Amino acid sequence: MNRRIVVGALAGIAALIGTAALPVHAQNRLTIYSAYENSQMKPLIQAFEKAHPDIKVEHFRQPGEELVATLELELRAKSPKADVVGLNAASLTYLNKKHGALAAYAAKDVDKVRAEVRDPQNFITPAFINLYLIHYNTKKIAAADAPKTWTDLLSPRWKNAVSMADPNSSQSVQSFVWFIAEHLGKSDPASYGWDYFKKLGANGVHLESSHGTIRDLTVSGERPVAVQLLANAQTAANRGEPTNPIWPTEGSPGEVSAFALLKDTKAREAGQKWLDFVLSPEGQALMPGSLGGAPVRNDVAYKYPDGTPLDKVRIVPVDSAYISENRKQQAKRFHDALGR
Amino acid sequence: MRIAWVASIAWLLYLVAVPIGYMVVDSVTEDGITLQHFADFVADPKLRAATLNSLLVATGVAVLSVLVGAPLAFGVARTAMRGKGIVRATVIVSLISPDFLIAMAYIALAGPNAGYFNRIIRDGLGIGSGPGPLDIFSLWGLIFTALPHGVSYVFIALVPALRNMDPALDEAARLQGASGLRTVRDITLPLMRPALLSGALLAFAGSLAMFGPPHMLRLNVLTIATREALVRLDFKAASATSVVLIALSLVALLFYRRSVRQADRFRTLGGKGFTHRDAGLGKAVHLLTALGVAYALISLVIPYGGMLMVSLMKSVGQGVTWGNWTFANYVEVFADAGVRKAAVQSFLLAAGSATLVVIMGFLTAYMIVRTRYAGRGLLDYLSILPLAVPGTALAIALAVVYLHWPLNSLALYGTFGILFVAYLTRFITFGVRTSQTTLIQLSPELEEASRVCGASSMTTLALIVMPLMRQALIYAWILVFILALPELSASVVLKGIHTQTLSTVLLDIWNGNGGLAMACALGMSMFAAVSGLLIVAIAVAKTARGVAPLTLGAA
C-alpha cells in the first residue's frame, strides 16, 4: 500500500514531465522564431499556408535581443527547436559567427533582390528593409511643431516626451545607436557621438524593451515622440492610429530584416519553401501590410506609410558586420552614456 | 512509512537544497574559490543602484502598508466602522490577484503625460500640458502599485491578533480615564507589535520579490538586474545577484520567524471568555470608514475599472469617445493560438503542481508532526525556505543547475518540466504549512485506534487522516492553483519559446506583441478567472474546520 502511493506519485511526476518534454516536430510543421509581432506575421503565414496547404506554420515571437539569448541557450543545451529564425541581419550574422547556427540556402528569386542588401553566402535571406524614423502623435503635436532632425530630440521642448528601445532587450536599436554614435559621430562629434545619448538621457528619454510598446506609448500620447522603426509606424498607420512618421534630414539608418534556416532543422524543405515565399513577388508585395517594412526587390512598387515615395528618404545602410562584432560593448557604452 | 520518509527528504533536497546550494557554490567559484563575482557586483554602479532601489521600495512598501493596514485592521476588528465587508474583500482579492495587473492599469491611469489622473489634475489646477504631477514610472510609482499587496499582508497578520486580545486590557485603561485614541496608542499598539512586525516583514519580502511591476515600469531593481544578467548569458553575475537577493529576503524571513516566536511573550488571550466591544473612537470612526473606501477604490475599483475600459477600446489613441468601443480585443485574445496554448499549459502546470504540492506537503507535514524520525527539523526548515526565495532568484538557480553538468543531461531547460519543478518549489511551503496546522488540531487518538484495529500506518493515513483533512487539503489545492495560474517571476526566466504561460504571454503582448488594449483584455480575463476560483476557495474554507483562510503569508 505505502509503496504503491509513493511509486504512483513518482510515476505521475515522470509522466507529467515526460509528456511535456515530447518533441513538437511533426512531419510538415514549420517552426519559426522571430522578433516580428504575431499580428504582423499573420498575413504572411496565412498566404504561405494557402500556397502550401500541406505545411502548418507555428510562430513564436520574442523581442530580438531576448530571442538571441533564447537561441543561444537552446544551442548551448543542444536542443534547438526552431526551423527558421527571423531577426535582423546583424543578429543572424552574430549567431552564425559564434555558433555556426545557420544553413546556407539561395532562395528562388534571390537574384531579384537589390544587390546592397544581399548576403553573398546566402546564409541570410533578406525580407524587408526597416528604417529608423521619428514617430509622433498627431493629436498631441501639430505637424509644424514636430521635430525634424535627430538633434531636435535634444531640445527642452521634448523633455520627458521621447521614448526609444533599450539595447539590452531590442536588437534593432543597435542600428540606431551605431548610426548616431559611430556613423554621424565620426563626421560631427560635437552634435552626435556618445554625447548625443548623454544629452538624450538628460532630456528624460524613456527606455522600453520593445518597439511595439513604444508604438503603444506614442499612440496613447503617454510619450508623444519616439525613435521608431518603419515597421511599427506602418502598423500604427494600418490600425488608423493618430500618428505620423518624420524623415529626419540627417537620414535614416536602414537595417535588413531577414529570415534564415537553422542548420539542425528537421523541416529543411518546408523552411526553404518559406524563404522562397518571402522573396516571391506575392510575399514581397505583402510586406507593408504585414511585417511593415519596405520590400527588398526592385520590381515591387512601394510607398512609405505617409505616402512619401521611396527615393525621397535618405537611407544609410547600417554596418551589420560592425554591429554583430560590437553588440555587447555598444549596449554597455549606451547605458554608460545615459548613466542608467 | 520509511519509504515515505525517504521520499519527503529526497523531494525537498531535490527541489530546494540542490538548486539553491548549487547557485551559492556557483557564485563563489571560478577555477577555485573566489569572491570575485561579489566584488564585481559591488563595483558595478548599476547593480549598487538596483540594490538600493530594491531596499528603498521594500522599506517604503512595508512602512506605508503598516500606516494604511493597521488602522484598517483595527477598524474592522474593533470598531463600528462601515464597509468592513468591502475592506475584507479588497484584502483577499489584492492578495491573490497578480501584482503586474495593478501596474499595467496604473500606467494607463497615472502616466505622466497622458494618464487620466494627470489630465484631470492638470485641468483642475489649470496647468497646461504635462508631464506630471504624478509619475508612475518612478520608485514612488512602484511603491504605490505594490501597496495593495502590502496592506493585505499587514491586515491578515493583525486582524486575528486584535480579535484574540482581551478588551478588558483596554477597558482598564479607559476606566483610568484615558481617551479612546490614547488607549490605542499606549495599550493596543504595543501589544500588537509582533503581529505588526510580521505583517510588515511579509510586505517587505513580497516587494523585494516583485518582477512584473518593475519590469513594466522600467525600473532598475535586483529582480530585473538578475534576469538581465541571464539574458546577457552572464551566469556568474546572475548567480551573485540572486544570492544577494535571497540573502536580503532571508534576513527578513529570519526576523519574521523571530517576531512570530516572540508573540508568546505578548500573550493577550487568557483562559477566560470575553466578548468584543467597540473601541469607542467616537467620530474618528468615520475617518476609518473613509480610509477603507479609499483603499477599496485605489486597489480594486479604479485599476480594474480602468483596465476594463481600455480593454474595450478600438483605438487607445482615440480615448473615451463614442464609437471607440469593441469586443474585438477579447475575440482576438481568445482566438490567438499562442494564448490558448499558454492557457492550457498554465492550467496544467497549476493543476499538476497543486496536486503534487498537496500530496507531498501532506506527507512531509505528517513526518514533521507525527513521527520521530531524525531530520524533522531539516524538513521543517527546507519546507519554509522557498518563502524567502524570490521567484526570479529561484528560476535563475534552476537555469544555472539545469544548464550545467551533471543535470544538463536531463535536457530539462526550455521544457515544461523545468517550469513544473519551479512551481513545485515555489509553492511547497503552502502544502506543508496547511497540512501542518490542520494535523496539529487532529488528535492522534484517532490514528492510534486505527492502528490498534490492525491497519498499517499507510492505510491509516489514507483511510483515517486524509479524509479528516479533506477540506483543508482541497483548500490548499485551490490556494496553490490560484497562486500558480498567474505565476510570472519564475516563469519569465524559465519559459521556453514553446512553453509560455498566461503571464508570460500577457507580458509579451504588453511588450508590443499585440499592444495595450489586448493586454488589458487578457489581464481582465485572468482577473475574472482568479476571482471566480477565489469564491470557490472561500466556500470550501467556510466548510473546512480549523483552517484559517489565507493566513499563510507571502504569495
Write structural notes for this entry:
Chain A is an alpha/beta fold. Chain A is 41% helix and 19% strand. In chain A, strand 1 (29-34), helix 2 and strand 2 form a beta-alpha-beta unit. The radius of gyration of chain A is 22 Å and the shape is globular. The relative contact order of chain A is 0.19. Chain B is mainly α and 555 residues long. The model of chain B is unreliable at 546-555 (pLDDT under 50).
Describe what is shown at a glance.
The complex is a heterodimer of chains A (340) and B (555). Chain A is an alpha/beta fold and 340 residues long.
Number of strands of chain B: 0
Percent in helix of chain A: 40-55%
Mean pLDDT of chain A, nearest integer?
A: 88
Structural class of chain A: alpha/beta
Beta-strand segment tally of chain A? 12
| Most extensive interface, chain pair and sizes | A-B, 69 and 62 residues
Spatial extent as radius of gyration of chain B: 24 Å
Nearest-integer average pLDDT of chain B: 85
Number of helical elements of chain A? 11
The shape of chain B, in one word, is globular
Shape of chain A: globular
Distance between the termini of chain B: 32 Å
Alpha-carbon distance between the termini of chain A?
A: 61 Å
- Looking at the chains present, what oligomeric state does this protein adopt? heterodimer
Q: Specify the number of helices of chain B.
A: 25
Question: Main β-sheet of chain A, in a few words?
Answer: 12 strands, mixed
The succession of helices and strands of chain A, N to C, reads HEHEHEHEEEHHEHEHEEHHEEH
What does the secondary structure layout of this molecule look like, with pairings?
The complex is a heterodimer of chains A (340) and B (555).
Chain A: H1 2-21, E1 29-34, H2 38-51, E2 56-61, H3 64-76, E3 84-88, H4 89-99, E4 102-103, E5 125-137, E6 162-165, H5 173-187, H6 193-202, E7 206-208, H7 211-220, E8 225-229, H8 230-238, E9 243-246, E10 252-262, H9 268-279, H10 281-286, E11 294-295, E12 315-317, H11 320-338
Parallel strand pairs in A: 1-2, 1-3, 6-7, 6-8, 10-12
Antiparallel strand pairs in A: 3-10, 4-10, 5-8, 5-9, 5-10, 5-11
Helix pairs in contact in A: 4-11, 5-6, 5-11, 6-11
Chain B: H1 2-27, H2 36-43, H3 45-78, H4 84-96, H5 99-110, H6 116-125, H7 139-163, H8 168-175, H9 180-191, H10 193-208, H11 212-216, H12 222-231, H13 235-262, H14 284-311, H15 328-335, H16 337-370, H17 376-384, H18 391-403, H19 416-441, H20 445-452, H21 457-468, H22 470-484, H23 491-494, H24 502-510, H25 516-543
Helix pairs in contact in B: 1-13, 1-16, 1-18, 2-13, 3-7, 3-10, 3-12, 3-14, 4-7, 4-14, 5-7, 5-14, 7-10, 8-9, 10-13, 12-13, 13-18, 14-25, 15-25, 16-17, 16-19, 16-22, 16-24, 18-19, 19-22, 20-21, 22-25, 24-25
